Amino acid sequence: MSLLVPPAGKIILTYDDYLQLPDDGKRYEILEGVLHVTPSPTTRHQRVSRNLHFILHAHVTENNLGEVFYAPLDVVLSNISVTQPDLLYVSRERQSVITEKNIAGAPDLVVEILSPSTSSVDQVTKAQVYARYGVPYYWVVDPEGKTLDEFRLERGIYLPVRRWEQNAQFTPELFPGLVVELERVWA
Question: What is the pTM of this model?
Answer without folding.
Answer: 0.91
